[in-house]
Design brief:
The protein is an alpha/beta fold. It folds into two domains: 138 residues, no CATH class; 216 residues, no CATH class. It has a five-stranded parallel sheet with strand order 10-9-13-14-15, with helices on both faces. The chain is elongated and about 75 Å long. The chain starts with a helix and ends with a helix.
Amino acid sequence: MDLAARRAREGAEVLLLGGGSEAPLSRAGVPCRQPAVSPEAAAAVDGAVRTWARVWGRLPLRDGRSFRELAEWKGVSLWWMGEGFFRESTEAPRCVRAVESFLRLLEAEAPAEVEAGGLLPAEALLLSRACTARGVLYHGPAAARPRVPPGAWASRGRREAWGAWLDGFRSGGPEPPGDVPLVVDEEDAALAPVAAALGSRVIALPAVVRAASRPARNAAREGRRRLLGLFGLLRASPGVHESFSHRGVPFFDLAEGDLAGLLLARLPAAVRLYEAAREWLAAARPRAVLVAVRSRDDRRAFFAAATAAGVPSIQLRPGEGDEADRADGGPHPGQVLTGEAALDPERVEAGLRAAGAGTAAARGSFGGP
Protein backbone atom coordinates (compact mmCIF):
# COMPACT_ATOMS: atom_id res chain seq x y z
CA MET A 1 0.00 0.00 0.00
CA ASP A 2 2.91 2.34 0.72
CA LEU A 3 4.21 1.81 -2.82
CA ALA A 4 0.77 2.54 -4.29
CA ALA A 5 0.46 5.70 -2.18
CA ARG A 6 3.87 6.98 -3.28
CA ARG A 7 3.21 6.32 -6.93
CA ALA A 8 -0.24 7.95 -6.73
CA ARG A 9 1.33 11.10 -5.26
CA GLU A 10 3.78 11.09 -8.16
CA GLY A 11 0.88 11.09 -10.62
CA ALA A 12 0.73 7.39 -11.50
CA GLU A 13 -2.61 5.66 -11.97
CA VAL A 14 -3.16 2.73 -9.60
CA LEU A 15 -4.98 -0.30 -10.98
CA LEU A 16 -6.34 -3.01 -8.71
CA LEU A 17 -6.22 -6.47 -10.28
CA GLY A 18 -7.84 -9.75 -9.32
CA GLY A 19 -11.16 -8.42 -8.09
CA GLY A 20 -9.77 -7.16 -4.77
CA SER A 21 -11.58 -4.57 -2.70
CA GLU A 22 -10.83 -0.90 -3.29
CA ALA A 23 -11.83 -0.01 0.27
CA PRO A 24 -8.37 -0.32 1.94
CA LEU A 25 -6.73 1.91 -0.66
CA SER A 26 -9.62 4.38 -0.59
CA ARG A 27 -9.44 4.65 3.21
CA ALA A 28 -5.72 5.39 2.86
CA GLY A 29 -6.53 8.16 0.41
CA VAL A 30 -5.08 6.35 -2.59
CA PRO A 31 -7.20 6.80 -5.72
CA CYS A 32 -7.50 3.54 -7.64
CA ARG A 33 -9.78 1.68 -9.97
CA GLN A 34 -10.38 -1.81 -11.26
CA PRO A 35 -9.99 -2.37 -15.00
CA ALA A 36 -13.32 -2.99 -16.69
CA VAL A 37 -13.68 -6.58 -17.92
CA SER A 38 -16.75 -7.24 -20.03
CA PRO A 39 -18.39 -10.69 -20.17
CA GLU A 40 -17.22 -10.92 -23.77
CA ALA A 41 -13.61 -10.24 -22.74
CA ALA A 42 -13.79 -12.83 -19.95
CA ALA A 43 -15.20 -15.37 -22.41
CA ALA A 44 -12.41 -14.53 -24.85
CA VAL A 45 -9.79 -15.25 -22.18
CA ASP A 46 -11.45 -18.59 -21.39
CA GLY A 47 -11.51 -19.40 -25.08
CA ALA A 48 -7.82 -18.58 -25.44
CA VAL A 49 -6.97 -20.99 -22.63
CA ARG A 50 -9.07 -23.80 -24.11
CA THR A 51 -7.64 -23.27 -27.58
CA TRP A 52 -4.05 -23.21 -26.34
CA ALA A 53 -4.45 -26.46 -24.39
CA ARG A 54 -6.17 -28.19 -27.31
CA VAL A 55 -3.64 -27.03 -29.90
CA TRP A 56 -0.59 -27.88 -27.77
CA GLY A 57 -1.03 -31.59 -28.43
CA ARG A 58 -0.65 -30.95 -32.19
CA LEU A 59 2.46 -28.75 -32.07
CA PRO A 60 5.74 -30.26 -33.37
CA LEU A 61 7.89 -31.07 -30.34
CA ARG A 62 10.64 -33.35 -31.66
CA ASP A 63 11.66 -34.27 -35.22
CA GLY A 64 8.49 -32.61 -36.51
CA ARG A 65 6.23 -34.93 -34.50
CA SER A 66 3.59 -33.74 -32.04
CA PHE A 67 2.81 -35.07 -28.59
CA ARG A 68 -0.26 -36.68 -30.10
CA GLU A 69 2.03 -38.71 -32.37
CA LEU A 70 4.86 -39.35 -29.93
CA ALA A 71 2.81 -40.59 -26.97
CA GLU A 72 1.00 -43.68 -28.21
CA TRP A 73 0.24 -47.13 -26.89
CA LYS A 74 -0.75 -50.05 -29.10
CA GLY A 75 -1.77 -47.80 -31.92
CA VAL A 76 -3.82 -45.39 -29.79
CA SER A 77 -2.67 -41.84 -29.03
CA LEU A 78 -2.43 -41.34 -25.27
CA TRP A 79 -2.89 -37.59 -25.69
CA TRP A 80 -6.65 -38.10 -25.64
CA MET A 81 -6.36 -39.80 -22.24
CA GLY A 82 -4.45 -36.90 -20.73
CA GLU A 83 -5.85 -33.79 -22.44
CA GLY A 84 -8.33 -33.11 -19.65
CA PHE A 85 -5.58 -33.42 -17.03
CA PHE A 86 -3.33 -31.11 -19.02
CA ARG A 87 -6.04 -28.48 -19.31
CA GLU A 88 -7.33 -28.60 -15.76
CA SER A 89 -4.50 -29.77 -13.47
CA THR A 90 -1.30 -28.23 -14.79
CA GLU A 91 0.37 -24.83 -14.66
CA ALA A 92 0.50 -24.00 -18.37
CA PRO A 93 -3.21 -23.11 -18.76
CA ARG A 94 -2.95 -20.87 -15.69
CA CYS A 95 0.03 -19.15 -17.27
CA VAL A 96 -1.89 -18.70 -20.52
CA ARG A 97 -4.81 -17.18 -18.61
CA ALA A 98 -2.51 -14.72 -16.85
CA VAL A 99 -0.63 -13.81 -20.03
CA GLU A 100 -3.81 -13.30 -22.05
CA SER A 101 -5.30 -11.15 -19.29
CA PHE A 102 -2.15 -9.03 -18.94
CA LEU A 103 -1.79 -8.51 -22.68
CA ARG A 104 -5.42 -7.44 -22.99
CA LEU A 105 -4.94 -5.02 -20.09
CA LEU A 106 -1.82 -3.52 -21.66
CA GLU A 107 -3.59 -3.18 -25.00
CA ALA A 108 -6.55 -1.44 -23.39
CA GLU A 109 -4.60 0.89 -21.09
CA ALA A 110 -1.61 1.53 -23.41
CA PRO A 111 0.78 2.56 -20.61
CA ALA A 112 4.36 3.70 -21.19
CA GLU A 113 5.56 2.15 -17.92
CA VAL A 114 4.22 -0.45 -15.48
CA GLU A 115 5.23 -1.16 -11.91
CA ALA A 116 3.95 -4.24 -10.09
CA GLY A 117 3.30 -4.58 -6.39
CA GLY A 118 1.48 -7.23 -4.39
CA LEU A 119 1.28 -9.81 -7.17
CA LEU A 120 2.28 -13.42 -6.72
CA PRO A 121 5.83 -14.08 -7.98
CA ALA A 122 4.66 -16.05 -11.03
CA GLU A 123 2.11 -13.33 -11.91
CA ALA A 124 4.73 -10.61 -11.60
CA LEU A 125 7.14 -12.56 -13.82
CA LEU A 126 4.50 -13.10 -16.50
CA LEU A 127 3.50 -9.43 -16.34
CA SER A 128 7.12 -8.43 -16.88
CA ARG A 129 7.33 -10.67 -19.94
CA ALA A 130 4.00 -9.39 -21.28
CA CYS A 131 5.37 -5.86 -20.94
CA THR A 132 8.50 -6.87 -22.85
CA ALA A 133 6.35 -8.36 -25.61
CA ARG A 134 4.37 -5.12 -25.83
CA GLY A 135 7.40 -2.82 -25.60
CA VAL A 136 6.36 -1.42 -22.21
CA LEU A 137 8.94 -0.54 -19.56
CA TYR A 138 8.48 -2.74 -16.47
CA HIS A 139 9.54 -2.15 -12.87
CA GLY A 140 9.15 -4.72 -10.13
CA PRO A 141 9.95 -8.31 -9.21
CA ALA A 142 10.58 -10.73 -12.05
CA ALA A 143 11.64 -14.04 -10.57
CA ALA A 144 9.59 -17.14 -9.71
CA ARG A 145 9.86 -20.89 -9.37
CA PRO A 146 7.45 -23.55 -10.64
CA ARG A 147 4.65 -24.25 -8.18
CA VAL A 148 4.90 -28.02 -8.77
CA PRO A 149 8.41 -29.18 -9.78
CA PRO A 150 8.94 -32.22 -12.03
CA GLY A 151 10.25 -34.27 -9.11
CA ALA A 152 6.92 -34.02 -7.31
CA TRP A 153 5.07 -35.51 -10.27
CA ALA A 154 7.71 -38.22 -10.68
CA SER A 155 7.28 -39.22 -7.01
CA ARG A 156 3.52 -39.31 -7.36
CA GLY A 157 3.78 -41.48 -10.46
CA ARG A 158 6.04 -43.97 -8.66
CA ARG A 159 3.71 -44.15 -5.66
CA GLU A 160 0.67 -44.75 -7.85
CA ALA A 161 2.47 -47.40 -9.92
CA TRP A 162 3.58 -49.32 -6.83
CA GLY A 163 0.14 -48.97 -5.30
CA ALA A 164 -1.49 -50.40 -8.42
CA TRP A 165 1.00 -53.28 -8.46
CA LEU A 166 0.27 -54.16 -4.82
CA ASP A 167 -3.49 -53.87 -5.36
CA GLY A 168 -3.22 -56.63 -7.92
CA PHE A 169 -2.05 -59.06 -5.24
CA ARG A 170 -4.83 -58.06 -2.85
CA SER A 171 -7.64 -58.24 -5.38
CA GLY A 172 -9.88 -61.27 -5.48
CA GLY A 173 -10.16 -61.18 -9.27
CA PRO A 174 -12.47 -59.30 -11.61
CA GLU A 175 -16.18 -59.09 -10.93
CA PRO A 176 -18.33 -60.88 -13.51
CA PRO A 177 -19.77 -58.06 -15.61
CA GLY A 178 -23.00 -59.75 -16.59
CA ASP A 179 -24.76 -59.21 -19.88
CA VAL A 180 -24.59 -55.41 -19.91
CA PRO A 181 -22.44 -53.90 -17.15
CA LEU A 182 -22.72 -50.24 -16.19
CA VAL A 183 -19.28 -48.80 -15.50
CA VAL A 184 -19.11 -45.69 -13.31
CA ASP A 185 -16.42 -43.65 -11.59
CA GLU A 186 -18.77 -42.43 -8.87
CA GLU A 187 -22.22 -43.36 -7.68
CA ASP A 188 -25.13 -41.65 -9.41
CA ALA A 189 -28.55 -42.34 -7.93
CA ALA A 190 -30.23 -41.11 -11.12
CA LEU A 191 -28.83 -44.10 -13.02
CA ALA A 192 -30.01 -46.72 -10.52
CA PRO A 193 -33.44 -47.22 -12.18
CA VAL A 194 -31.78 -47.75 -15.55
CA ALA A 195 -29.40 -50.34 -14.12
CA ALA A 196 -32.25 -52.11 -12.30
CA ALA A 197 -34.53 -52.20 -15.36
CA LEU A 198 -31.79 -53.60 -17.60
CA GLY A 199 -30.40 -55.95 -14.97
CA SER A 200 -27.04 -54.23 -15.30
CA ARG A 201 -24.33 -54.88 -12.79
CA VAL A 202 -22.79 -51.60 -11.63
CA ILE A 203 -19.00 -51.82 -11.73
CA ALA A 204 -16.73 -49.13 -10.27
CA LEU A 205 -13.88 -48.13 -12.55
CA PRO A 206 -11.19 -48.51 -9.83
CA ALA A 207 -12.35 -52.11 -9.26
CA VAL A 208 -11.59 -52.90 -12.91
CA VAL A 209 -8.03 -51.60 -12.51
CA ARG A 210 -7.48 -53.46 -9.23
CA ALA A 211 -8.59 -56.74 -10.83
CA ALA A 212 -5.93 -56.64 -13.56
CA SER A 213 -3.99 -59.87 -13.99
CA ARG A 214 -0.21 -60.15 -13.85
CA PRO A 215 0.13 -59.97 -17.69
CA ALA A 216 -1.99 -56.80 -17.76
CA ARG A 217 0.06 -55.26 -14.96
CA ASN A 218 3.29 -56.21 -16.73
CA ALA A 219 2.01 -54.54 -19.90
CA ALA A 220 1.21 -51.41 -17.90
CA ARG A 221 4.74 -51.43 -16.44
CA GLU A 222 6.15 -51.58 -19.95
CA GLY A 223 3.94 -48.64 -20.91
CA ARG A 224 5.24 -46.65 -17.96
CA ARG A 225 8.83 -47.49 -18.91
CA ARG A 226 8.25 -46.17 -22.45
CA LEU A 227 6.65 -42.98 -21.15
CA LEU A 228 9.63 -42.44 -18.85
CA GLY A 229 11.92 -42.75 -21.87
CA LEU A 230 9.79 -40.27 -23.81
CA PHE A 231 10.03 -37.82 -20.91
CA GLY A 232 13.82 -38.02 -21.09
CA LEU A 233 13.72 -37.24 -24.81
CA LEU A 234 11.28 -34.34 -24.58
CA ARG A 235 12.34 -32.51 -21.45
CA ALA A 236 15.42 -31.03 -23.17
CA SER A 237 13.83 -30.60 -26.60
CA PRO A 238 13.89 -26.99 -27.89
CA GLY A 239 10.51 -27.64 -29.48
CA VAL A 240 8.98 -28.38 -26.08
CA HIS A 241 10.45 -25.22 -24.57
CA GLU A 242 9.11 -23.14 -27.44
CA SER A 243 5.66 -24.74 -27.22
CA PHE A 244 5.15 -23.38 -23.70
CA SER A 245 4.45 -19.81 -24.76
CA HIS A 246 1.47 -17.67 -25.64
CA ARG A 247 1.42 -14.64 -27.93
CA GLY A 248 5.19 -14.30 -27.69
CA VAL A 249 5.37 -14.70 -23.89
CA PRO A 250 7.35 -17.80 -22.79
CA PHE A 251 6.69 -19.65 -19.53
CA PHE A 252 8.35 -23.07 -19.72
CA ASP A 253 10.33 -22.32 -16.56
CA LEU A 254 7.05 -21.94 -14.65
CA ALA A 255 5.37 -24.97 -16.20
CA GLU A 256 8.25 -27.41 -16.61
CA GLY A 257 6.53 -29.83 -14.24
CA ASP A 258 3.57 -30.21 -16.63
CA LEU A 259 5.44 -32.57 -18.93
CA ALA A 260 6.38 -34.74 -15.95
CA GLY A 261 2.81 -34.70 -14.68
CA LEU A 262 1.53 -35.84 -18.06
CA LEU A 263 4.15 -38.50 -18.85
CA LEU A 264 5.03 -39.78 -15.39
CA ALA A 265 1.70 -39.65 -13.56
CA ARG A 266 -1.41 -39.18 -15.69
CA LEU A 267 -0.60 -41.31 -18.76
CA PRO A 268 0.80 -44.32 -16.86
CA ALA A 269 -2.54 -44.38 -15.03
CA ALA A 270 -4.32 -44.28 -18.39
CA VAL A 271 -2.28 -47.25 -19.64
CA ARG A 272 -3.12 -49.21 -16.47
CA LEU A 273 -6.81 -48.54 -17.03
CA TYR A 274 -6.62 -49.41 -20.72
CA GLU A 275 -4.85 -52.74 -20.12
CA ALA A 276 -7.11 -53.75 -17.23
CA ALA A 277 -10.34 -52.82 -19.04
CA ARG A 278 -9.31 -54.46 -22.31
CA GLU A 279 -8.45 -57.70 -20.51
CA TRP A 280 -11.66 -57.66 -18.47
CA LEU A 281 -13.92 -57.01 -21.45
CA ALA A 282 -12.14 -59.44 -23.77
CA ALA A 283 -12.44 -62.25 -21.22
CA ALA A 284 -16.07 -61.60 -20.19
CA ARG A 285 -17.46 -60.67 -23.64
CA PRO A 286 -20.57 -58.80 -22.45
CA ARG A 287 -23.21 -57.93 -25.03
CA ALA A 288 -22.29 -54.28 -24.60
CA VAL A 289 -21.06 -51.95 -21.89
CA LEU A 290 -22.72 -48.82 -20.57
CA VAL A 291 -20.31 -46.09 -19.47
CA ALA A 292 -21.22 -43.25 -17.11
CA VAL A 293 -17.75 -41.94 -16.32
CA ARG A 294 -17.42 -38.19 -15.75
CA SER A 295 -13.65 -37.97 -16.27
CA ARG A 296 -13.06 -37.41 -19.97
CA ASP A 297 -9.57 -38.89 -19.78
CA ASP A 298 -10.70 -42.11 -18.07
CA ARG A 299 -13.73 -42.29 -20.34
CA ARG A 300 -11.59 -42.16 -23.47
CA ALA A 301 -9.20 -44.78 -22.08
CA PHE A 302 -12.14 -47.10 -21.42
CA PHE A 303 -13.64 -46.52 -24.88
CA ALA A 304 -10.28 -47.36 -26.46
CA ALA A 305 -10.14 -50.57 -24.41
CA ALA A 306 -13.69 -51.53 -25.39
CA THR A 307 -12.88 -50.98 -29.06
CA ALA A 308 -9.75 -53.12 -28.75
CA ALA A 309 -11.79 -55.86 -27.04
CA GLY A 310 -14.52 -55.70 -29.68
CA VAL A 311 -17.26 -54.81 -27.17
CA PRO A 312 -19.82 -52.11 -28.13
CA SER A 313 -19.94 -49.16 -25.73
CA ILE A 314 -22.67 -46.64 -25.03
CA GLN A 315 -22.05 -43.48 -23.05
CA LEU A 316 -24.76 -42.29 -20.66
CA ARG A 317 -24.53 -38.56 -20.05
CA PRO A 318 -27.60 -37.50 -18.06
CA GLY A 319 -26.16 -34.30 -16.59
CA GLU A 320 -26.52 -31.09 -18.55
CA GLY A 321 -23.23 -29.83 -17.14
CA ASP A 322 -21.24 -32.81 -18.40
CA GLU A 323 -18.86 -31.69 -21.11
CA ALA A 324 -19.30 -33.48 -24.42
CA ASP A 325 -16.35 -34.84 -26.34
CA ARG A 326 -15.41 -33.09 -29.55
CA ALA A 327 -15.57 -34.87 -32.88
CA ASP A 328 -11.75 -35.01 -32.97
CA GLY A 329 -11.51 -36.02 -29.32
CA GLY A 330 -9.97 -39.45 -29.74
CA PRO A 331 -11.66 -42.74 -28.78
CA HIS A 332 -15.45 -42.54 -28.85
CA PRO A 333 -18.32 -44.82 -27.88
CA GLY A 334 -20.64 -46.39 -30.40
CA GLN A 335 -23.47 -44.15 -29.17
CA VAL A 336 -24.03 -41.29 -26.73
CA LEU A 337 -27.33 -40.90 -24.89
CA THR A 338 -27.80 -37.55 -23.17
CA GLY A 339 -30.33 -35.95 -20.85
CA GLU A 340 -33.61 -37.82 -20.45
CA ALA A 341 -32.59 -40.44 -23.02
CA ALA A 342 -29.78 -41.57 -20.73
CA LEU A 343 -32.30 -42.18 -17.93
CA ASP A 344 -34.94 -43.96 -20.03
CA PRO A 345 -34.46 -47.78 -19.90
CA GLU A 346 -36.39 -48.29 -23.13
CA ARG A 347 -34.22 -45.88 -25.08
CA VAL A 348 -31.07 -47.36 -23.58
CA GLU A 349 -32.26 -50.85 -24.56
CA ALA A 350 -32.93 -49.61 -28.09
CA GLY A 351 -29.39 -48.27 -28.18
CA LEU A 352 -28.08 -51.63 -27.02
CA ARG A 353 -29.96 -53.44 -29.78
CA ALA A 354 -28.57 -51.05 -32.37
CA ALA A 355 -25.06 -51.44 -30.96
CA GLY A 356 -25.38 -55.23 -31.03
CA ALA A 357 -26.62 -55.20 -34.60
CA GLY A 358 -23.74 -52.97 -35.63
CA THR A 359 -21.20 -55.28 -34.01
CA ALA A 360 -22.73 -58.36 -35.67
CA ALA A 361 -22.65 -56.63 -39.06
CA ALA A 362 -19.03 -55.60 -38.52
CA ARG A 363 -18.05 -59.17 -37.59
CA GLY A 364 -19.83 -60.54 -40.65
CA SER A 365 -18.16 -58.08 -42.98
CA PHE A 366 -14.75 -59.06 -41.64
CA GLY A 367 -15.47 -62.77 -41.68
CA GLY A 368 -15.32 -63.09 -37.88
CA PRO A 369 -17.32 -65.56 -35.81
